[in-house]
Amino acid sequence: xxxxxxxxxxxxxxxxxLLGAVVVGALLAVRGARTRPPARARRVVLSGxxxxxxxxxxxxxxxxxxTVLPPADAAAPRPPWPPPLLNPSANLRMAWDLALGRPSxxxxxxxxxxxxxPGTTDRLLGMLDRAxxxxxxxxxxxxxxxxxxxxxxxRALLRDTFARGxxxxxxxxxxxxxxxxxxxxxxxxxxxxxxxxxxxxxxxxHLFRPPYGSYSEDVxxxxxxxxxxxxxxxxxxxxxxxxxxxxxxxxNVIRLIGNMAGGTxxxxxxxxxxxxxxxxxxxxxxxxNRDRLAHGREPYRVVDPAEFxxxxxxxxxxxLADQQARREADARAARRARDQDAAAxxxxxxxxxxxxPAREPTTLGTAGMGSSAP
Length: 374
Description:
Layout: H1 3-35, E1 43-46, E2 49-53, E3 64-68, H2 92-98, E4 107-113, H3 121-131, E5 136-139, H4 150-163, E6 167-170, H5 183-201, E7 207-208, H6 217-226, E8 229-230, E9 235-236, H7 246-260, E10 263-268, H8 272-294, E11 301-302, H9 305-312, H10 316-343, H11 364-367
Parallel strand pairs: 4-5, 4-10, 4-11, 5-6, 6-7, 7-8, 9-10
Antiparallel strand pairs: 1-2, 2-3
Helix pairs in contact: 3-8, 5-6, 7-8
């Protein structure tokens, strides 16, 4: 064999050897991929707080990406909607008490008033989705029948809010002080707004919140006749007073959540700073719950309106007992006053032993809960 032939044969042999090595390596890689499970994000559950980790095969060293409160247990039966009324007579004092929720449960319900408002409500919906929270939105009907293009955008936004699983409530058409309205206007503000909402989402709103918490016997009678649930609040953000100051709004809500161990939070999805404050509150809850679990303390739970209402139901016997105690105290005070008048020789007007009937507070101020935004 000539030197040139030997050289060519050597090159061919080396090439075939390299090709064989490549083929064998590829076959081994394919076999390993079939027998080894794919890398996936590992999930660690720590007492109800769910930690998602990034894909890695470094045993025990998952890089955390986000820690969020888990959504409600899908296996648990959900409360029906609409639930049976907590407050069929739409008593204002009872509604304030029920807004506190289940006693000592650290349960939070987020509620947002005055929307839907394109540019802020849609931003808030994304935040709620990422946090796995469901809220109640109390809608003003004028936004659903205003001039175009805002009318179409507001209606589409309301449908989107409802489709994402949030509850829609009635906040009247024009957000007026209901205590100062004639009977016919009260009926219009409540009923027409309910019709507008049902026209858009196909479902009658079950919840009603009067603007400013302002109330009258006409309003109470209308809500009771409609079999609506009067839903107020226990944690007022006062975001309408803190214009542009998201941090102050968030700190106010966080302080009240801590003081009251949960309850019904009032914010407005129409203010950009309120939406930013909501994001701050969500992040605080995430951090606070990690710390609580690490120290063996009960975490806060953000619940949807159906679950919050069912939880608040256990408060009713206590509320009724308090009402009875007040009636008895009023009766004792009336008897003492009669006895004093008799001893002084001035019997005055005869009164029954039951004393004067308890008068329901008619404005938010007399209920002692602060005031809501215009």
